[in-house]
């Protein structure tokens, strides 16, 4: 294996490990995050963001997420301080 091919392999492995670490850091299932993003998309079309995470808290309560404080903390730590930032900063990490 030449040096260029080796670097490609190492980069691929590194990215895979990053994805795995991200998945393991999630405080709730990925599918629930995707539902949260859909919920926020709809709600934020109806109302402007009020610079809180009120809609996210509403979603967590409606869906009976037990560890909602852990979810809110995780969102804040990853750049989602309010509902519109959750969509802008967090959703892209799931692509």
Automatic annotation (TrEMBL):
InterPro entries: DUF2695. It comes from Flectobacillus roseus. This is DUF2695 domain-containing protein.
């Amino acid at each position: 294996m030449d040096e260029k091919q080796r670097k490609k392999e190492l980069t691929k492995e590194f990215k895979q490990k990053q994805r795995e670490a991200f998945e393991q850091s999630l405080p709730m299932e990925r599918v629930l995050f995707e539902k949260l993003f859909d919920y926020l998309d709809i709600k934020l079309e109806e109302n402007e963001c009020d610079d809180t995470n009120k809609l996210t808290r509403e979603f967590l309560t409606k869906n009976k997420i037990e560890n909602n404080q852990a979810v809110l903390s995780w969102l804040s730590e990853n750049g989602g301080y309010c509902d519109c930032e959750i969509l802008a900063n967090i959703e892209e990490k799931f692509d």
